[in-house]
Amino acid sequence: MQRNEKPLDRSASTTTTWDIPKIVSQAMSGKLRVPTFQRSFVWDPKDVLRLFDSLYRGFPVGTLLLWQQPLKPGTSRFGPIEFDVPEDPEGLWIVDGQQRVTSLVASLSPIEHRHDERFDVFFDLSRKRFVGPLRGMRPPRSIPIREALESRRLLAWLRAHGDDLEDADLETADGLGGALRDYKIPAYIVEENDESLLREVFDRVNSAGKPISRAQVFHALFAQGAEEGSPATVVEELRSRGFGRLDEGKVVQSLLAIRGGDVQRDIHDEFDEGDELADWYDRTERALSRVFSFLNTQGAPHLLLLPSTFPIPVLAAFFDLHPEPDEWILELLGRWLWRGWVHGFGREAGQTPALRKAIQVVNPKKGRPELAPDPFTAAKRLLDNVGDSELTNLNLDSFMTARGNGRLFLLALNALGPLDPAGQAIDVPQVLESRGTSAIGQLVPGPRSLVANRAFWLPEWPKLTGAESREILKSHNISSAAASELRQFNPDGFLAQRERDILESTLSFLNSKMDIGLPARPPLSNLMVSDPETVPNDDE
User: Fold this and answer.
1) How far apart are CA 376 and CA 524, in angstroms?
2) What does residue 64 show for φ and ψ, rounded to 5 degrees?
3) Torsion of CA 59, 62, 63, 67, to 10 degrees
């Protein structure tokens, strides 16, 4: 992409300074707002205290970058504070400075809000330093800073708490109020409407400090503060399917894959004038819904069971182009999925080159879906890039539910149809959705890092004794030999036997899923030749 060499129109930009009371009042009036595309508040309590210490000591805290735009009526949020705001034809989006402004407004505003200790800031009058609450309470000889911003409130607070303070504290408190009221923060207000230039400004000011994600940058560049159509809205819509919470970055990758070409491309000029971003998000959501349905049919019913989310954007591009593929094509995609989870999804060094190559196999050119290969050719090429060999061993050490290796074991356990203590089928996706990985409980005293000691068994359920029904034990890969060890109160013997059983059954399960050595032939529909039209007999 060519860099935008145009300078900002300085006649349409203003450099000014705002004192703290003005920043708070502008935020509370609805003129100054955090755009919905901005990331959530990421500062911790120490960051907030450090900001107020800088203000008190007169240290610079950086310049605010604001974008003047007409703002619609709605709801404004600053951390835990939320309130209705009116329309403002000359409103200001905070492009850079969200963390600072949110800290000021949430800590200094008199509005009651849900409790968040990050914004419970006090000034210790004896030590002249900013502190947080002490066991949830105001520390001795300290003043809540929200009482110090306005002179009238400060005087009222000092009168009400005078018995707890010393004479020197009153002078210190007065100095605190003056420091907060008099400090001025530089603000640069941009009225520029050249979107490409604004995008470059946004990108540059977010390239320092704690960088925001590619998904957040993507939405910032194109959504212009609208809630409708965003990675977050897609995530929430998909969440209703009970498949888990997909990372917003995967949504953006999937959208770019659906549009075709290199998913790692520069996204600044991704859309042309007239493109409806909400339509693209809707299209992405539909494709991802098909992906989730496909993964479920493959025996992977929840995101917390996926050894890798690598296939998601690849499959999204595939199902967008081919929403109802032949059953045989789905079988080939299943082979690719399992072989990739077991052996890796590419021979390239690193996931990014492999992902780029896989998506270009399915949808090679941005905006040119007619250049995409047919479903069989795409599936065949994907299969050509993954291993095709029998799995003979798996690492049993250091089992963790978040690791790909651990999730291969969990998929094999899920395939057994685990039962609860009453012999009823466990709704694995539902318990993972509600309980997370705590649904994968520990069976006997001993290391949780042993796969043999883990199962879809909730912590509050009765401990296994080995006397349960054969159906219940079998559904958790507990053989009669392992159950016998349990009945003899021999947890070490149980773990050793179940480890052998799990390894054997998992290897068998995964090898059957990979269809090792089977050729990727075209579907029968590709081989069918229609009968030629009947040539009429001259005698007829």
Assistant:
1) 11
2) -85, 140
3) -140
Q: What is the rounded CA–CA span in Å between residue 314 and residue 361?
A: 9
* Other residues' Cβ atoms within 10 Å of the Cβ of residue 370: 6
C-beta of residue 78 within 8 angstroms of C-beta of residue 48: no
Name 212's Cβ contacts closer than 8 Å, sequence gap at least 6. Answer: 38, 39, 206, 220
SS (H, E, C) 77-96: EECCEEEEECCEEEEEEEEE
Q: Which residue's entry shows tokens 């996204």? A: 267
The pLDDT tens digits for 129-153 are 999 988 778 888 899 999 999 999 9
State the DSSP code for 533. Answer: P
> Residue 256's Cα: distance from chain center in Å?
17
Nearest CA-CA partner of 332 in 297, 380, 367:
380
Radius of gyration of the chain (CA): 30
Average pLDDT of the residues in 221-249:
78
Q: What is the pLDDT of residue 2?
A: 43
d(CA 103, CA 49): 9
What Å distances lie between residue 333 and 198, 294, 386, CA to CA?
Answer: 42, 9, 12
Q: Is the separation of the CB atoms in 124 and 148 below 8 Å?
A: no
Contacts 24+ apart (CB under 8 A), 322-326: 322/375, 322/378, 323/290, 325/375, 326/375, 326/523, 326/525
- Find where tokens 């060519």 sit: 2
Residues 263, 215 contacting (CB under 8 angstroms): no
pLDDT, tens digit (0-9, with 9 covering 90-100), for 192-217: 665 555 656 655 655 545 555 556 65
